Amino acid sequence: MAKDNDTRRAFLKGAVAGAGAGAVAALAPVANAQTHQMPGASAEALPQGERHGAFFNDEQATTVTTFAERLMPGAPGKPGATEAGVVNYIDLALAGAYSDQQEFYRRGLDQLDAYCQATHKAPFAKLPAAQQDEVIAALEDGKATGFQWPAARAFFETLRTHTMEGMFADPVYGGNKDFAGWRLVGFPGAQPAFTGADLKSREAFSRAPILGLQSQASRKA
């Protein structure tokens, strides 16, 4: 299982450069994204990094969080999708720039749990990790039954893409909490200045501070 987790993490990290950069650029900056909620959402009960309520209900958020964490699992010293707040990113996106995909997600999540109930007698979020991985593999291979629209593979591809965006987009969009994704891949973000030695070095740049768009905007205000 640990080897499978490392393989998934390596794949997603390697795909960061092409992880929907154009789509991320289309998102409007979201102020206070980590605390954006609608009445009735229960952020207090969620694991670190999770917030929702702009679009997802609690059940949907739990499923998306669990799915994303299997795609990008955390490990000691290596933040995963949950810690990075991926569900918050997707939630805010579906309430805004990705609002045209709301029905896609509703139907996809319903079909996902229906498939899991038929195959494993439990919804996706309640399955053991090994069975969750089996379900994800069936989606990726287009072999999960009962999917009409969206198709199983299309649903997988969309969730994978949005997981990558939530891990590695600027935190102003609601994910990459505390720059978890950027720190994971050694991306320094915006810096006040780079020295001549920094520019010549072939080593990964790790000096703080890492700054995002929201920080930059507040500095100009």
Write a structural description:
There is one protein chain. 51% of the residues lie in helices and 0% in strands. The chain is mainly α. It has one domain. Helix 5 packs across helix 8 (152-168) and helix 7 packs across helix 8 (152-168). 36% of the residues are buried.
Q: Give the helix proportion (percent range).
A: 40-55%
Tell me the count of domains.
1
Beta-strand percentage? under 5%
Biggest sheet details: none
Supply the key terms.
single chain; 221 residues; mainly alpha; 11 helices; 51% helix
Quick take:
With about 220 residues, the protein is mostly helical. About 50% of the residues lie in helices and about 0% in strands.
Write the layout of secondary structure elements.
Blueprint: H1 2-14, H2 21-25, H3 58-71, H4 81-84, H5 86-94, H6 102-120, H7 129-140, H8 152-168, H9 180-185, H10 196-200, H11 213-220
Helix pairs in contact: 5-8, 7-8
